[in-house]
Amino acid sequence: MIDKASCGYIPRNKLTKKGKVNERANRIEWEHLIPAENFGRQFSCWRDGNTKCVNNKAKAYKGRKCCEKVNDQYRIMQADMHNLFPAVGELNGDRKNFKFDFEVGKRGQYGACEFNVDFKAKRVRVKEDLRGVIARDYLYFNKQYGMKLSKQELQKYTAWDKKYPPTAWEIERNKRITKVQGNSNPFIGE
Q1: Distance of alpha carbon 125 from alpha carbon 128, whole angstroms
Q2: What is the pTM of this model?
Q3: I want to staple 160 with a disulfide (CB 3.0 to 4.6 A). Which of 115, 131, 149, 166 is the partner?
Protein backbone atom coordinates (compact mmCIF):
# COMPACT_ATOMS: atom_id res chain seq x y z
CA MET A 1 0.00 0.00 0.00
CA ILE A 2 1.06 3.55 -0.64
CA ASP A 3 1.05 6.17 2.09
CA LYS A 4 -0.24 8.86 -0.25
CA ALA A 5 -0.11 11.56 2.44
CA SER A 6 3.65 11.04 2.94
CA CYS A 7 4.45 12.06 -0.61
CA GLY A 8 1.39 14.04 -1.70
CA TYR A 9 0.42 11.52 -4.38
CA ILE A 10 -3.10 11.90 -5.71
CA PRO A 11 -4.19 9.39 -8.36
CA ARG A 12 -4.83 10.85 -11.79
CA ASN A 13 -7.69 8.40 -12.17
CA LYS A 14 -9.49 7.00 -9.13
CA LEU A 15 -11.41 4.63 -11.42
CA THR A 16 -10.41 2.61 -14.48
CA LYS A 17 -12.12 3.10 -17.85
CA LYS A 18 -14.39 0.20 -16.90
CA GLY A 19 -15.48 2.03 -13.72
CA LYS A 20 -13.57 -0.18 -11.29
CA VAL A 21 -11.28 1.12 -8.55
CA ASN A 22 -7.84 1.92 -9.98
CA GLU A 23 -5.90 -0.68 -7.97
CA ARG A 24 -2.61 0.35 -9.59
CA ALA A 25 -2.94 3.67 -7.78
CA ASN A 26 -2.77 1.76 -4.49
CA ARG A 27 0.27 -0.43 -5.02
CA ILE A 28 3.98 -0.37 -5.66
CA GLU A 29 5.23 -2.22 -8.74
CA TRP A 30 8.74 -3.07 -9.90
CA GLU A 31 9.24 -0.93 -12.97
CA HIS A 32 11.79 -1.32 -15.74
CA LEU A 33 13.30 2.17 -15.80
CA ILE A 34 14.34 1.36 -19.37
CA PRO A 35 11.12 -0.16 -20.72
CA ALA A 36 11.42 -3.74 -21.96
CA GLU A 37 10.31 -2.62 -25.41
CA ASN A 38 13.19 -0.14 -25.63
CA PHE A 39 15.83 -2.84 -25.20
CA GLY A 40 13.72 -5.66 -26.65
CA ARG A 41 13.44 -4.04 -30.08
CA GLN A 42 17.09 -4.90 -30.75
CA PHE A 43 16.17 -8.60 -30.89
CA SER A 44 14.57 -10.28 -33.90
CA CYS A 45 12.26 -12.26 -31.58
CA TRP A 46 10.72 -8.94 -30.53
CA ARG A 47 10.43 -7.49 -34.03
CA ASP A 48 9.72 -10.57 -36.14
CA GLY A 49 8.92 -13.42 -33.80
CA ASN A 50 10.45 -16.89 -33.95
CA THR A 51 9.32 -20.25 -35.29
CA LYS A 52 9.12 -21.45 -31.66
CA CYS A 53 6.69 -18.63 -30.79
CA VAL A 54 3.37 -20.17 -31.73
CA ASN A 55 0.39 -20.50 -29.40
CA ASN A 56 -1.86 -23.55 -29.09
CA LYS A 57 -3.97 -22.30 -32.01
CA ALA A 58 -0.88 -22.22 -34.27
CA LYS A 59 -0.89 -18.42 -34.24
CA ALA A 60 2.57 -16.83 -34.27
CA TYR A 61 3.46 -14.07 -31.84
CA LYS A 62 6.37 -11.74 -31.20
CA GLY A 63 7.46 -9.10 -28.69
CA ARG A 64 8.03 -9.67 -24.98
CA LYS A 65 6.21 -12.99 -24.87
CA CYS A 66 8.33 -14.46 -27.67
CA CYS A 67 11.68 -13.09 -26.41
CA GLU A 68 10.98 -14.40 -22.90
CA LYS A 69 10.55 -17.84 -24.42
CA VAL A 70 13.48 -18.00 -26.84
CA ASN A 71 16.15 -15.41 -26.05
CA ASP A 72 18.51 -15.84 -23.09
CA GLN A 73 20.10 -12.39 -23.52
CA TYR A 74 16.67 -10.73 -23.42
CA ARG A 75 15.75 -12.62 -20.23
CA ILE A 76 19.00 -11.49 -18.57
CA MET A 77 18.36 -7.86 -19.54
CA GLN A 78 14.74 -8.06 -18.40
CA ALA A 79 15.77 -9.39 -14.99
CA ASP A 80 18.75 -7.04 -14.49
CA MET A 81 18.21 -5.55 -11.04
CA HIS A 82 20.03 -2.35 -11.95
CA ASN A 83 17.04 -1.54 -14.20
CA LEU A 84 14.27 -2.40 -11.71
CA PHE A 85 12.87 0.32 -9.46
CA PRO A 86 9.82 0.55 -7.22
CA ALA A 87 7.13 2.82 -8.65
CA VAL A 88 3.51 3.69 -8.00
CA GLY A 89 1.56 1.36 -10.28
CA GLU A 90 -0.50 4.11 -11.89
CA LEU A 91 2.63 6.10 -12.80
CA ASN A 92 4.26 2.94 -14.15
CA GLY A 93 1.20 2.21 -16.29
CA ASP A 94 0.86 5.78 -17.52
CA ARG A 95 4.53 6.02 -18.41
CA LYS A 96 4.28 3.00 -20.72
CA ASN A 97 7.47 2.97 -22.83
CA PHE A 98 7.71 6.75 -23.18
CA LYS A 99 11.10 8.44 -23.15
CA PHE A 100 12.26 10.95 -20.56
CA ASP A 101 11.96 14.58 -21.58
CA PHE A 102 14.42 17.41 -21.08
CA GLU A 103 11.85 19.41 -19.10
CA VAL A 104 11.55 18.95 -15.35
CA GLY A 105 8.35 17.46 -13.97
CA LYS A 106 5.77 19.78 -12.46
CA ARG A 107 3.30 19.10 -9.70
CA GLY A 108 -0.37 18.67 -10.41
CA GLN A 109 -1.03 15.70 -12.66
CA TYR A 110 -0.45 13.32 -9.73
CA GLY A 111 -0.87 15.67 -6.79
CA ALA A 112 2.41 16.85 -5.27
CA CYS A 113 4.51 14.34 -7.29
CA GLU A 114 6.94 16.01 -9.67
CA PHE A 115 6.04 13.62 -12.47
CA ASN A 116 4.17 14.37 -15.68
CA VAL A 117 3.17 12.25 -18.62
CA ASP A 118 2.62 14.02 -21.92
CA PHE A 119 0.51 11.34 -23.58
CA LYS A 120 0.31 13.16 -26.91
CA ALA A 121 4.09 13.68 -27.21
CA LYS A 122 4.81 10.30 -25.55
CA ARG A 123 7.23 11.89 -23.10
CA VAL A 124 7.69 11.73 -19.33
CA ARG A 125 9.01 14.49 -17.12
CA VAL A 126 10.46 13.70 -13.70
CA LYS A 127 11.85 15.68 -10.81
CA GLU A 128 15.34 16.90 -11.43
CA ASP A 129 17.14 14.78 -8.83
CA LEU A 130 16.13 11.56 -10.63
CA ARG A 131 17.93 12.51 -13.82
CA GLY A 132 21.28 11.10 -12.69
CA VAL A 133 19.71 7.75 -11.77
CA ILE A 134 18.03 7.59 -15.17
CA ALA A 135 21.23 8.54 -16.98
CA ARG A 136 23.38 5.96 -15.22
CA ASP A 137 20.87 3.20 -15.95
CA TYR A 138 20.76 4.01 -19.68
CA LEU A 139 24.56 4.37 -19.86
CA TYR A 140 24.95 1.05 -18.03
CA PHE A 141 22.64 -0.76 -20.44
CA ASN A 142 24.49 0.79 -23.36
CA LYS A 143 27.82 -0.47 -22.02
CA GLN A 144 26.71 -3.79 -20.51
CA TYR A 145 24.43 -4.99 -23.31
CA GLY A 146 25.24 -2.79 -26.29
CA MET A 147 21.78 -1.20 -26.18
CA LYS A 148 21.78 1.47 -28.83
CA LEU A 149 21.36 5.11 -27.84
CA SER A 150 20.94 7.94 -30.30
CA LYS A 151 23.59 10.65 -30.37
CA GLN A 152 21.12 13.00 -28.65
CA GLU A 153 20.31 10.43 -25.93
CA LEU A 154 24.00 9.74 -25.31
CA GLN A 155 24.70 13.46 -24.95
CA LYS A 156 21.70 13.97 -22.66
CA TYR A 157 22.52 11.03 -20.38
CA THR A 158 26.22 11.87 -20.23
CA ALA A 159 25.36 15.45 -19.21
CA TRP A 160 22.82 14.27 -16.63
CA ASP A 161 25.34 11.78 -15.19
CA LYS A 162 27.85 14.59 -14.63
CA LYS A 163 25.36 17.16 -13.34
CA TYR A 164 23.55 14.82 -10.92
CA PRO A 165 26.16 12.61 -9.15
CA PRO A 166 25.16 9.40 -7.35
CA THR A 167 23.59 9.78 -3.93
CA ALA A 168 24.64 7.73 -0.92
CA TRP A 169 21.52 5.57 -1.37
CA GLU A 170 22.28 4.97 -5.06
CA ILE A 171 25.79 3.82 -4.14
CA GLU A 172 24.45 1.54 -1.40
CA ARG A 173 21.81 0.11 -3.76
CA ASN A 174 24.52 -0.61 -6.34
CA LYS A 175 26.57 -2.47 -3.69
CA ARG A 176 23.55 -4.57 -2.67
CA ILE A 177 22.69 -5.45 -6.26
CA THR A 178 26.32 -6.35 -6.93
CA LYS A 179 26.24 -8.85 -4.05
CA VAL A 180 23.11 -10.54 -5.41
CA GLN A 181 23.56 -10.20 -9.17
CA GLY A 182 27.34 -10.36 -9.38
CA ASN A 183 28.00 -7.17 -11.33
CA SER A 184 27.90 -3.48 -10.56
CA ASN A 185 26.86 -0.45 -12.53
CA PRO A 186 30.27 1.12 -13.26
CA PHE A 187 28.66 4.55 -13.74
CA ILE A 188 27.75 4.63 -10.03
CA GLY A 189 31.09 3.72 -8.50
CA GLU A 190 31.67 3.70 -4.76
Answers
A1: 9
A2: 0.91
A3: 131
